Structure formats: C-alpha cells, structure tokens
Amino acid sequence: MEHAGADKAASVGDAVRFGHLENLAAMLLQAEAFVLELEGEPAGELDGLVQRAERMQADEILTGEAAMWAATPVVYGGQTLGLLVLQTPEPRPVPDEGQRAMILQLAKVAGDLVAGAQAQRTCADQVRMLDMIEDMSGIGWWRMDKHKNSARCSRRVREIHGLQPDQTVFELRAGVGHYDPKDKALLEAALDNALETGEGYNLRMRLNSPDGKQRTVMSHAVSEKDANGEVCGVFGVFRDVTDQEAVVAKLRRNEARYRLLAENVSDVITRVKMDGSSKYISPAIQSVLGWTLEEMSGQSTDYVYREDRHKVLGAIQNAVKSGKPTRLEHRAVHRDGRILWVECTFKALRDEHGEVDDVVVVIRDATQRKLLEGEVIEAKERAEKAAEAKTEFLANMSHELRTPLTSVIGYSGLLKNSPGLTPTQRLYGDRIAASSEALLMVINDILDYSKLEADAVELENAPFDLRQRITDTVGIIESQCAAKGLGLTVDMDARLPEILSGDASRLRQVLLNFLSNAVKFTATGSVGVKAFGAETEDGRYRLRVEVSDTGIGLSHEKGELIFGRFTQADASTTRVYGGTGLGLAISRRLIELMDGRVGYESEPGKGATFWFEVPLDFDFALPVSVAADTVPDIGVRGRILMVDDAEANRELVKIILGTLGLEVETACNGVEAVAAVRRGDFDLVLMDVHMPEMDGLAATREIRQQARDKHLPILALTANVGGEQVQKCLDAGMDGHLPKPIQVGDLAQTLKKWLQSQ
C-alpha cells in the first residue's frame, strides 16, 4: 500500500482542513486528517472514494485503498456530507478496534464541523446576495433600537448620510441632521411617533449629501415590538430617487428583505423553478414587456420568443450545473406583439441542504444596445469595403505607374551604357535613372505597407549567401557615397556562416533602407555596416546587422516616432531630404514577421546606428541558381514572344533580349498573341496582363486550350505585383511572374532557367 503523507494530502483538490480535527487525529492516531465534501471535485485516486462515500454505512471504515490509511463517511443529521480521510507518512497495519472507535468518533466531530461550515457558507451567500441587490437597486436599510438608544445601517445608508464607513453602531438619531430643516422636523416627528405608538411612515425628503449636493430620498419605516407587544425599535429602508423618482411599491411585512428590494428596481427580477414555472416575478415585468405574473399563468417562458425558449432553459440548467452566474441574450415578446431583445443573468440558489431550490433571473431591456450593435456591424462592413476599395485603388495605381516607369528605367539604363555620350549627357542619364529609381521606391513602399496592413505578406525561406548579399546591397549605395564624399566601410564577422536560410530579398530590403537613410542624412563623414551573430539554443543562427553613420542624428523623443507610418523625425525632414516616411515602418514590420527585433541608438548631431536582429536557419547547401547574381551571357538561345500593349515596353524588352542573344517577336494584345503562338514556333512567352481586346489571362487560357499536347512556358511580365494578382496569373496557367519595372538580372536568370528546361 502506498502512503502519500502530508505532501500528498495537501495537494488533494477541494480538501477541507479543520484545525481541531487535525490536532485530535495527530494526538490520538498519529495520522493526518482532512475531509472531502460530496459537493467538491477531488483530484486523482481519491475521486472514486468520494463517489462511494454516499453509499457507505455510517460506521464503515475503508482501509488500504487510494494512497490512504483509513477513510469513513462524515454524517450529520442522517445525511452523508463527505469523507474523512486519514493518511500516514509510513505504511501501517489495518486499524485495530481501539483505533476504529477513535476514527468513528473523529468522523462525528467532522460531521459537526462540516455542517457548521456549510451553514456559514449559506449565510454568507445570502449576505452577498443582499449586498448585490442593494448595489443594483440603490436601496439601503437602517434599524433603531429604542432600549439601547443606538442605530445600525447598511453601507449605502452610511455613504449617503456621510457616516464613518468603518463604524457599525451609531447614536439613535445619527444622520438626521443632514436633512433639509423642514424635512428634518418632519422626520424627527415621524420617528418619535413610531417609537411611541408603533406606527410606521413613508416620507419623501431632501438630504444634504457629503458632496455638497442636495438629494431627494424616499424613506419607509416600520416599528418592531417585543414579546410583550411593546415597541422596541424601528426598521426602515430608503432610496435615493434624485435621478429617477419612483414610488416604492406597497410592502408586505411577511416578505423577505430581498423581495422588498427586488420590487423597486427597474430590471425584472424573477425566481424560476427547474420546470420553467415561476413563483415570483417583480412588477417591473409590466414596464419592460407589458405582462403581469397573472397574465403569464405562472410560466416564466411565456414572454420568451418561441425559437429562443430552448436557449433560456439551457441557460438555467447551466447555471444550476456550474454554480456560477450565466448570461444570455435572447428575444422576448412584448404584450403588444413587438419583438424585443433582453439580457438575462441566471444565478442558482441552494437551500440549507445544498440542493438547488430555484434560480434568480435578472432581466434587462437590451433592445437599444442591439440596435447600436447592428449599426457598429454595418459600419465595420462599410470600413471593410472601403479597405478593399483602397487595396484595389493602390493596385491599379501601382500598375499605371509601373508601366511607364518600365520604359523610363529601362531606357535610362540603356542610355547610361551607350558609348559616345558627353559628360553632360551622361549626367542627364544618371539623373533620369536616379529619379525613376526613387519614384519606384516610393511606389514599392506604399504597396508594401498596404500588404503589411492586410497581413498579405508571405515570407520565403530559401538558402542564400549572406556575405554576397550584404556585399551586393552595399554596392548599390557606393556611388551615392562617392558622390557625397562619404567613407563606406563593411565589417563582417569572420565567423558568419557562409549559407543561411530565410527571405533574402526582404532582408536586403531592410538593409538597403537603413543604408539609404544613412547616406541621405549624412553630409560629411562615413557610413558603416557591421554584421555578426551567434548560434541560438534551438539550433538556429541569430543574425545582427548594424548600419552606422555620422549624420544629423535624432533625439529620443523624435526616435520614438520614426518607426510609425508616414512619419519622419521632423516635419522639415520631408522637405529637405524627401521620402514617404514608410521605410522604417515597413522594415520594422518585416523584421517582426521574421520573429526579429529592430532598434536604434542616436544623439542629435552625433550620428545614428540602426540595427536589426533576426533568427535564421543555416547549414544548407547553396543551389547554383542562388550563387549567380551577375548578368553574364545566359548561354542559351531561343525564340521569345513578347506581348505588351505599350510600344515603348515592347521595344525595350526587344533590345534587352537582343543583347542576351535571343530572337524576339512582339504582339500588342492577347488576340495577336494567340494567333502568333498558333502560327509560330516559340520557346517562351512573356505576357502582359492588362491589354485591350483580350487580356493576358484570357490569352493564356486560350493558348493552353489549343496546345494541350505541348507545354509552352508563359511568364507574366506585368506591373501587377500584389499577391492575389500574382496568384491569378498562376491560376490562369502561367508558369511564373516577373514584375515591372524590369530587373535585367532577374529577367536573364528566369529566361535561362526556362529555356534550359525546354
């Protein structure tokens, strides 16, 4: 037999501890004693014993079961209340006759203790219920003792009369002086008459409250008499009716105090039996629903909308089962036929034996709130539609801006590399390229933030060469540093892994944003990049990259703002340095999506250091396609069909593909593309999406329908870059997606991949 000992006993759920009982058990039996009540839910091995206790005889003792030495029922008044459990730290023999007698005697003591504890709980529940009703109704009570020349009152009465909150007994006339002089005389006369003759009173008076305001109160009092019929005191209730005056209903002396209170609140209070009938419904039912108890024939569900009646009965059953208040909103039928919404709170009440007697239900009219909820839902739907319209607008504007930018960026690139340009002409070309790239960054920032707000950004997880990515990204801003005479340093820890796995393009985007800001806000000095990290306990690598500059810096107060959308450290910053104010907000959201962190260190006039940390996977083999970041001769030949409704874009792509050694034919819409594929022998199609007569999606579906026996690679080359838009291209039968403006390196690598697979 396993003995749990004191530690085990202390961990048993719902065990009731009685100090005297434990001391007796320790002295008489050298055992630890505790009681498990039938109403509790004991844990572990003792659960089965508690369920058996109710079926055991009063003098029956169990031994050698469930990690205990002995156990016997706890009985009081012929009713089993629980189980007395005795545990010892060491195994002991079965109790002898003397020990059995002492165990049964301890069980009797436990019965008295448990019954007393349950009675105290019942009393405490009633007090809590009265306090709750007092708080809900705003009604207080008071009692004067004629012989003791003292008074007692509830918390509500003490508060309104300005009496000490921690004092319970007062002088006989305490608080009377707070009333208006005319009403004070009336009250004192009524009290004198009640104490002398036994007649009660019902008064409406003005009270000067502690906050300096005059309140209107209703006070009702009755006299108390002793066994000889002599007046011994006065008991009364009163209510503050300043905000909502109401006539207190006629009271019956033989009704419980909670009934007196319930009949004077605006909410409906009813007591419902388990079969749905009601023995009491407060008069407020008539003002809320137009019904009376007599008209409802004693059935509390008569006012409930027929389709909701099962919900009400279910809520009552749940309140009984759980022992906790249960809330429910349901429809109700007004006497005039209107359908209303009500909110109900159900609370089960138990009698002195712990059995559920009935359920108190508080009913409140919720029709107006439901109407407001409907308006809120409608407003939410309008906001969602507006958000959809915004997304569609951004997508359309992105497309319309990217389409001409494709030509501007492409031709400016060709122009810069053209031989024979004068220095001035080359400068003009550089200015065009820089301006178009800046405009593209603005478009990308707005589109990226829109995706982040809609949680539509999907991160990739692919291996990449970390050092090469950092080197290439730094190379983008080398010319900007040189133009401003800034130094540029790169410090990469020798222990950095060669290959990491994550979203390299998004990391490059964040790093480039930090570098661009550093160059933008630095007039003299230098810009530096530092990369290092360490392996984490979960087998990943936590990379930290820092970008430092000697620029204008920023204060702590301004620094708290810069990671917000459309925000820069100063309003003049946009005018002087430009930018959308979205870059850092996007960077922070991207890094946080990767479970990383972003921060900065800076002082005004002393430069700044912006950093990010992000966990990445490592120890991956680097694919050949990742290692090649340059744009060499792709080494393959093929015949390409380029479909685009913009003539400038067709010419640009034709020039670029020509430099790669590819043969190109063009078409200006989907109809021409379908016809060209039908009569020509192409190795690949670059397909725009938005075109007149037949768009790229319809053209792709038509091409797939006609050539089922041969798969012709079709790649979208479009300014539509949203996730849903890319998916539409793939769903139409396209094999991949290339965004506009065209990145020559990406275009070359993609064409090489597909042409080699042919």
Architecture blueprint of SSEs:
Elements: H1 5-10, E1 15-16, H2 19-29, E2 32-37, H3 47-53, E3 62-63, E4 70-76, E5 79-87, H4 97-137, E6 139-145, E7 150-153, H5 155-161, E8 169-171, H6 181-197, E9 201-208, E10 214-225, E11 231-240, H7 257-262, E12 268-272, E13 278-281, H8 284-289, H9 309-322, E14 326-333, E15 339-350, E16 356-365, H10 367-416, H11 423-453, E17 462-465, H12 466-476, H13 478-484, E18 487-492, E19 499-502, H14 504-520, E20 526-535, E21 541-549, H15 556-559, H16 571-577, H17 583-593, E22 597-602, E23 608-618, H18 624-627, E24 639-643, H19 647-659, E25 663-667, H20 670-679, E26 684-687, H21 696-706, E27 714-718, H22 723-731, E28 736-739, H23 744-756
Parallel strand pairs: 18-20, 24-25, 24-26, 26-27, 27-28
Antiparallel strand pairs: 1-2, 2-5, 3-4, 4-5, 6-7, 6-11, 7-8, 9-10, 10-11, 12-13, 12-16, 14-15, 15-16, 17-19, 19-23, 20-21, 21-23, 22-23
